[in-house]
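Pipeline run #58 for the internal structure catalog. This entry was flagged by the ingest filter as a single-chain record with no existing model, so it goes straight to prediction. Upstream metadata was stripped on purpose; only the residue string is passed forward. Reviewer on rotation: M.T. Logging verbosity set to normal.
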Amino acid sequence: MDLAPQDVRRRMEETLRTNASRPLFTGVAVEAPEVLPHVYSSSSMMQGGSLSQFGSKYVLPVGHTRHNYEEYEEVILPPSRVIPPRQSERLILVNELDELTRGSFPGYSSLNRMQSIIYPTAYESNENILGKTDIAMLTILRVLNQHRSPISPSSPLHASIDRNAFQIIYVAPMKALASEIVRKLGKRLKNGNSLRYMHHLLTFYVGDMQLTKSEIAETQVIVTTPEKWDVVTRKPTGEGELASKLKLLIIDEVHLLNEERGAVIETIVARTLRQVESSQSVIRIVGLSATLPNYLDVADFLNVSRYKGLFFFDSSFRPVPLEQHFIGVRGKPGSVRSKTNLDRVTYEKVSDLVRQGHQVMVFVHARKETVKAAQALKDAATMDGTLEDYNCEEHPQWTFFRRSIGDSRNKEMKQLFNLGFGIHHAGMLRSDRNMMERMFEARAIKVLCCTSTLAWGVNLPAHAVVIKGTQLYDSAKGSFVDLSVLDVLQVFGRAGRPGFETSGEGYICTTEDKLVHYLDAVTSQVRRFISGIENALNAEIALGTVTNADEGVRWLGYTYLYVRMRKNPFLYGQFLEPCMSWGEVAEDPFLGQKRSSLVMTAARRLASAGMINLTEKTGAFSITDLGRIAARYYIRYASIEVFNKEFKPKMTEADALSMLSMSTEFDQIQVRESEVKELELLMKKVPCAVRGGTDTSQGKVNILLQSCISRFPVEDFALVSDAAYAAQNGGRISRALLDIAISRKWASVAKVFMGITKAIEKRLWPFDEPLRQFDLKAEIIYGLENSREEYSPAELASMTPVELGKLVRLNEGHGKALWNAARQFPTVTMTSSLRPLGSNVLKIVVSVTRDFDWSTKVHGSGEPFWLWVEDHEGVEILQFAHLLLRESTNSLDVNFVVSIPTDTPPPYFTVRFVSDRWMGAEDELHVSLDGLVMPAPSHSHTRRLDLPFLPRSSLCLPVLEDLYSARLHDFNAIQTQVFWSLINTSMNVLVSAPVSSGKSLMGHLAIWTTLLRRPRSLVLFVVPNRTLATQSLFDFRVISNALDVTVKMSSGEGLFSPCRTSTIRVVTPSELLEAVDQLCDNLEQLDATYELSISLLRHTTQNNPTRYIGLSASLNDPTDIASWLGVDPMALHSFRPTDRDQSLTIMYQTFTIPHSAALFKSMSKPAYMAITSVPSHESAIIFVPSRSHCRTVAQELITQCALNTEIERGFLPQSVPPLYVEDYSARLQDLTLVDFVTRGVGIFHSGMSKVDRNLILELFAEGVVRVLLAPRDACWQLPVRAGAVVVMGTQYMHFEGDGSGPQLRDYSLVDVVQMQSRAVRHDSPGHFFLFCQAETRDTFSKFLAEGLPLESELLDSSGFEKWYKERRGDGSIRNKQDAVQALSFTLLARRLVSNPVYYDMEVGSQHEVLSRIVDRLEEPIL
């Protein structure tokens, strides 16, 4: 370059002219990189931490070196340089911490640098966090601190913590890691003086462990695996209630999103985020991970604030800097050359390290390989002449260790120790493993060859770790797979000895073709969720969190898939049809259409498999029994498709095992040539035929399952792993198939799968000795199995210990042990009685009596069992129940309602008892139908005629017409049809009509017309209870003053005193003695007292002119009621429920969840959907079992409303101003109701003050309160109606006064009909929603459509027997003839003839059957 002044000047002028000609604005703006406050990285390229849009790889860090050798290629990544502290950083001193936190860091003067950086966010806020493992303890302490209450200074700290208010879940990827976490956290809590009590609160909760409800309640910190937590949160009962108290969810190793199990982590995080939204609760999510390249994406997925909760620390924060060596050996994978090169490079690296004076851990992937690897190193060192480098005899404790190892029986371990080598794997004795760990820690061993269990379960560091090979056998896949990145990171974490060394080295020796894979593993993140979307969507639909396509789209927005799809729509677009274009992405940046496409495609697949119901027009989803079972048991959608093809109503054990083996959960298990011989030998010994033999994976699974049940030994080590996997999953899948069979009501195949399920779980065939399930000595079982005759446990229990000792050819002591086991074996005694409820409906009452000795150690808190009624062919289950026997339970009565064909009734039914847990604990009872006499079909129903409606003027009583002018214009169809009989005749009348059809009004008009036409008459209005009496009194008084009629509530005294004016006396059955004129209301509630009082009245007034009018809801057979009341057939008006004038839609929704808080939580969303299915100006009434349910259900409904409308007004109409509501709310005496009322929800029950009840009803009538919740028993007190009535559950807990504990009872049909009446309105249509258990739906639907059954309850009443004894004592009944004469006035007398089987009577005339009843009543007297 010319440096002359003129040339320099010329170049400068050219540069200035060029710059001057450039535009000031280029039109291209480059965003400055985002600077995040808590990202600590020694490499500037990591800032931003997001994957590129089109790629998934990063370049290797600066300073790496690559070496090529003949045997291998090596890439060395240098240790990260330490990042100097920032000016704002300082170490937090332990004495600055509060008492709670300080106690968890005993022996520390300050937190370390990473803990000090994270502490303000982790402990002083509720921010979601993504960071390192160190923060877990701080976030746990944060939860404890939030649930403390003030205590006196002298009280221990732990007394201030409300242990019942929270639960913490720690999700760890592996059981081994979970065990280490339990140990670490427990140790930390135990060491802290102030928290010493807390260490016992930790529970190790994994897939093979179940917790009882009491254990769940007593446990605050639970460590579990992702799969188990997914299963738990899928269950709305039992364990699923864990999620309701969840305050902190810690997910360890969140970088597993890159692994196959990533879909599970994604599912549980999305479910938790939705729970936070739906419950409006605070659930903190903490993600723990090794170094993540795309930490921003993961932070977005976990809902972590980038500026508050995101903490990124690269490897420079390791206590000991780590140098990483990635080695790819030459040669085809699996070839001799590749193996030789692997051995050689392993020896070279280990030898160099040992020569430098370092200890080395060599990790292999099979137990046998530990010895082989050590021998290979020893042989190579011998040939190389360097064996002396490994010798540790100069160690001061070598002689001591040599003496200790002499006690071991492990010859290989002894021989290798002399040369400086050690071995360690899970198959060794615990004492030998402990010895190896102590020797290596003391540096008495130079090289330790071990499996990865050492890296996971034991904190034993070394200067260097070498991973020899990356192929390991995975029993879940049935083949060799690559070592996971998680394992590599865990092993590398053992490199470096903090406090002793300043560096560590990690070596991974793999094949040449896998070298790039492991180099990229820490930087690439690929989504796995799409492949499992059907299973995840089904689980959410089963939970009720996704009920339509829109909700499915929102749910998908919580997943990591969505985060990555938005970052890279074109890469993920390959999974969608059609692929996305630039235009589509620009128009739909939030990918709503593509998410909808994914959801609908998955939903259609689920619907085609019968797992959900899909309405294409509206995009609505609802779960089926099949889908619910799949979600509960973690069954894949693909497996359900297989079962749909193979499942048949009749299957043998061989067929069932064959179908079970076809499950896609076993697809990974493949047949290997080396196993065929052993499989063939096993196949010859197993009891069931194997379809497919040893040539297919299904056949292999079948053989392994049967071998496991038969307890046949398996030799091949890979086959052992496959057998364990098959057994572990076989029990779960067979349970699912059992539930499917029961849900389809297939009796034969249900019994088969019940046997197979217990066979896999107990490893016992149904034909084996059932007492093997007890911990009895082998000689006892041998003697029992080789006795001359076979005895059932019940037969053995009936013998004496001496007899049993002789039976098994042993002494009395052995006989006593056998006798105890036989007495504790679950057996029951069953009896049945038949109760016909109509011409084609039969109730079978089954009494199950416990017949075994209870042992808490053997039976736990309860013994679950199935009880079902099947047809005589054993093909169909007619009704079933899943029950629980407890120690306090002596007997259970179970009612089954079945239909009987009127043309060809079956000869018998079979009642089957099957224990859910015990093999051989089952029984059956044949219920013979021979001689069964069913009631004749009723022909007494009145056809509703198409008559012109009568006007009000038809009463021909102007004063009455004027009084009813505001309430009545024309009579409806049913009122018109009964008008003549009730108003214009003096006949006894029975009106049986649908609820709210106007029959009570007609009864009142009949009373008024009687009193107006016959002054100074007395009318007794009989109602079944005091509540209805009070309500009737109010109704009468509205009219009585204008007619100069006296209305009184009768207490019994003076009921028949003369009256100066026309009088109505309202009376309950217990207060009724005799009457002159009689009207009986609500006869459908006829109980023993009601029947007895009316019967006595009929008997007393038989010679007096007394008119009886009976009013009742629709009955399925009113003939005998009419005869009892002396009603002429012309005056019997019996209408069916479907004859009502008003429009009423009845909808049923069934649930299989037992009665629990979880049941009502799962019902809350369907209830909300029912409320919103009617127009927005319409109101709704929700009936729940008890008062305590009112508030919880109200809160759930308000939450559902907030989720769906995204406003805080709840159900409060937009037209209602807040100030208006506040004025009303200020008048409430119970201030806890204010929050509900201001959101349009009211509560009504008798426990509230009268002022509050009336105020709530007033607000409901004005439309301010749109949703009204009431307990079951309030249905008779509630004076209002609504456009929608929802009955949430048809069971309630009944508490006996004898202290026997709560009993679960079903709603009476009468109560349900009364609840239904609240939805019947005269001016607009009504909607009635009945949420009930699946097995009771048919019963409710039948009687709600055909009318209520009504039978006499006299024989079951102690009051009836007491009355009879009193009448015999006072001489009112002198002899048998008097008794028969008195009883002839009862409804019982007529029903004994019409339906004798119901009362356990033989067919006969009225006089004959009553004579038998009198004989029964006389027995106690005589």
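catalog note: Residues 457 and 708 are 28 Å apart (CA to CA).
catalog note: The first helix runs from residue 5 to 21.
status: ready for reviewer M.T.
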